[in-house]
């Protein structure tokens, strides 16, 4: 899934010569490919990582969440820092951090080491992703060229999803799960060398302009604590979980108060006065929670219930991201132009609901062709329709001077939705399975019922996204 990142607010640099711009586009896409790869390549390797390092069922989600939470929590801050110190500097520094963290993940031999390295990857991913789209817009100011460049960028994101799932299975089965991270080393080094050579230097506004570092600390801590409370809910008593949730709410409240009073807030609260922008971000949290839960739980269903190996699981997931990429490039813009973003969004969300409802029936003796592939294609088609339409509605709700910040907010809620959905659904599945095992159920049957519960809850979440979108996102016509 391709993230939307903060667009520039300053006047773009003059266009570079064609060769330099095309080379720069390749570099930016290579950096994006690494972060997209990393978000998908881990999914198929989860059982191997769990077996090797001894993760619990709920704790296994932290292999993903340790990356997503710093990524989402830092996007607003590092996007602002990119404006202050220069986007090229932020991008190249992010590549270096991400590549080094990938090596640490690849040599990890303990749970704590892997999770810490994954968190460092999240920091590098945020540094890289927060400035990419802004650099693209600056390099391609002419509307038609800009549209083509962003289309290429979006296609790379979708291709990265397909490649990541496939490579995750192939590398884990043929070599070892450590290689899903070490594969980033040659990509990162090559992208870093090219970035230094071909990206046009830019001068930032200067650190003297300042950024809201306390606000960034508060929102990052609040996000991390929220997901920690959900992930560990099955391993602790209810009182402790509620106390952690209350502390997270307190941190979010402190962040809101800080933004209301800060001289240079990280997030201007006036943005939430827009019905379209606020509604689109709320819908996105629910929609992305559904899709991330599908990717994680779906891969586990194929392996632990249907008995697929890592390579076959990766291959089984290929139709979804390929379909998303093809439909986004070939149809989404024309469909939105003809029918309007609101109608296309509702149709896409309806397809996601239908796909999740079908998947919630996946039985213990299921078949890929009849029980997995149809919902897979429904989900892919629905997401390809819904995501561009939702993005357009969100940005239509922002004033021109707030467009960059609105993009950063939209990117952040995408990551938040993925983190919370993954955490909640993995806990539900694990808790249901453990309860059935305690009552004497057979392992595979209990596992299948746990996944069915997660899929049913994800269906309800998708229905919530559809209802909310229908209620609040109809754009008033002049």
UniProtKB/TrEMBL annotation:
Q: Tell where it localizes.
A: Cell membrane
PROSITE patterns hit by this protein: MFS
Alphabetically, the GO molecular function entries are: transmembrane transporter activity
Membrane topology note: Multi-pass membrane protein
Q: Which GO terms describe its biological process?
A: response to antibiotic
Give the domain of life.
Answer: Bacteria
Q: What is its main location?
A: membrane
> What InterPro entries does the entry give?
MFS, MFS_dom, MFS_trans_sf
Q: Which GO terms describe its cellular component?
A: plasma membrane
* The keyword Chloroplast appears for this protein: no
Q: Which Pfam families match?
A: MFS_1
Signal sequence interval, chain numbering: none
What SUPFAM superfamilies has UniProt attached to this entry? MFS general substrate transporter
Q: Alphabetically list the UniProt keywords.
A: Antibiotic resistance, Cell membrane, Membrane, Transmembrane, Transmembrane helix, Transport
The regions listed as transmembrane in this protein's record are 25-48, 60-78, 90-113, 119-138, 150-171, 177-199, 211-232, 238-257, 278-302, 314-332, 344-364, 376-396, 408-430, 450-473
The UniProt entry, under CDD domains, shows: MFS_MMR_MDR_like
Q: Where is the Major facilitator superfamily (MFS) profile domain?
A: 24-477
- Quote the protein name from its UniProt record: MFS transporter
Q: Which organism is it from?
A: Streptomyces cyaneochromogenes
């Amino acid at each position: 899934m391709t993230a939307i990142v903060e667009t520039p607010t300053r006047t773009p640099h003059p266009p570079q010569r064609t060769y330099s711009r095309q080379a720069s586009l390749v570099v930016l896409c290579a950096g994006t490919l690494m972060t997209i790869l990393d978000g998908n390549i881990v999914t198929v390797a989860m059982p191997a990582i769990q077996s090797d390092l001894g993760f619990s069922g709920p704790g296994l989600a932290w292999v993903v969440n340790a990356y997503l939470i710093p990524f989402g929590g830092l996007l607003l801050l590092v996007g602002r820092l990119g404006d202050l110190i220069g986007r090229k500097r932020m991008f190249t520094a992010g590549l270096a951090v991400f590549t080094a963290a990938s090596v640490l993940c690849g040599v990890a031999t303990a749970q704590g080491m892997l999770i810490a390295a994954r968190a460092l990857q999240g920091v590098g991913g945020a540094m890289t992703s927060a400035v990419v789209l802004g650099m693209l817009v600056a390099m391609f100011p002419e509307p038609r060229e800009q549209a083509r460049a962003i289309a290429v960028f979006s296609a790379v994101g979708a291709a990265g999803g397909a490649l990541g799932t496939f490579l995750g299975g192939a590398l884990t089965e043929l070599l070892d799960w450590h290689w899903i991270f070490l594969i980033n080393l040659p990509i990162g080094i090559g992208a870093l060398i090219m970035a230094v050579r071909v990206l046009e230097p830019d001068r930032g506004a200067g650190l003297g302009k300042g950024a809201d570092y306390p606000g960034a600390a508060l929102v990052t801590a609040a996000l991390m604590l929220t997901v920690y409370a959900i992930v560990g809910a099955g391993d602790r008593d209810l009182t402790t979980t509620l106390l952690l949730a209350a502390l997270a709410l307190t941190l979010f409240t402190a962040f809101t108060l800080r933004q209301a009073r800060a001289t240079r807030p990280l997030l201007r609260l006036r943005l939430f006065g827009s019905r379209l922008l606020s509604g689109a971000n709320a819908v996105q949290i629910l929609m992305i929670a559904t899709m991330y839960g599908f990717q994680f739980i779906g891969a586990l269903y194929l392996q632990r219930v249907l008995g697929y190996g890592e390579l076959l699981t990766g291959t089984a997931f290929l139709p979804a991201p390929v379909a998303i990429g093809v439909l986004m490039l070939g149809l989404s813009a024309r469909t939105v132009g003809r029918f309007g973003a609101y109608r296309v969004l509702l149709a896409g969300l309806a397809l996601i609901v239908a796909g999740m409802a079908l998947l919630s029936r996946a039985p213990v003796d299921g078949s890929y062709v009849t029980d997995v592939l149809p919902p897979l294609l429904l989900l892919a088609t629905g997401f390809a329709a819904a995501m561009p339409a939702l993005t357009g509605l969100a940005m239509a709700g922002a004033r021109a001077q707030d467009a960059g910040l609105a993009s950063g907010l939209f990117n952040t809620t995408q990551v938040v939705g993925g983190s919370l959905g993954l955490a909640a659904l993995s806990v539900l599945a694990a808790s249901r399975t453990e309860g059935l095992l305690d009552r004497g159920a057979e392992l595979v049957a209990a596992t299948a019922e746990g996944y069915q519960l997660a899929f049913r809850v994800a269906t309800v979440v998708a229905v919530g996204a559809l209802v909310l979108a229908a209620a609040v996102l109809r754009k008033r016509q002049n």
